[in-house]
What does this fold into?
Amino acid sequence: MLICLMGSSITSPASGGNPLKVTVSILPQKYFVERIGGDRVAVSVMVLPGANPATYEPKPRQMVDLTTSRLYFAIGVPFETVWLDKFAHASPEMEVVSTQAGIEKIPMKTPHHHDGDKNHWGPAAHSGVRDPHIWLSPPLVMVQARNILSALIKADLAGRAAYEANYKSFIMELVDLDLKITALLSGGDTHRRFLVYHPAWGYFAKAYGLVQIPVEIEGKSPTPKTLQRLIDEARQDGIRTVFVQPQFPAKSAETIARAIGGHVIVADPLAPDWGKNLLHVVEQFKSALK
It folds into this structure.
């Protein structure tokens, strides 16, 4: 059962001076929780490096380790739909925290063509699929950070002062990062559209006034007709870069890159060093947008 701990009554501290054991779904969350929890928490990650959070299946060892976690920080990635109830059943003493609480998720973007309408990249209204990639927008990470703080305090009241101090420091880090990204992506020498294989960057694009054009549609490779349309429109827009992530195949992206005389660049939304990685990706976007 999914629980947002904003109103939870759990207040017992971590016992015996040992770190509070918690589990997160993906590596960027580990970054967030450790920024706030510091040395009072020990964080395990469910989706292992290189794995796909859309289709991940936990290892038996992970299910065993989960029984020692006090908190599980969910974020809304697809594998959680299948596994969160199983986690709760296997570890009844563990609380599941919805870190996405308070965030309105946007529809995934898919290409649909309308003759004479240049702005034909829009929401997948027919599917109702909502974008889970909320960790790629610093303003939305601020919301997640507040939910993480509340959960840690309620699980370990003795650590409240430390958690609150770390939280304030992390928020300042996020504000600084947001300002840097805004400055890097501003200016009249850039267009605002970028091409990606998997549509992971929708919230990022929304936060910084960009338009994400996806190759993949709801986990499916594009049809030949759609692929050709992507190529034609990339040429029309002067796009020469296709961004891919290492968790997905790059064949279609490479086909488009060859056709437009461009190249493929890896932009990993699941890198463990979240802040450094995001700035690295922003530099890549900035170069591609010129």
User: Anything to note?
Assistant: The beta strands are 20-24, 41-45, 71-74, 95-98, 109-111, 121-123, 193-196, 211-214, 241-244, 263-266. The chain has a mean pLDDT of 87.
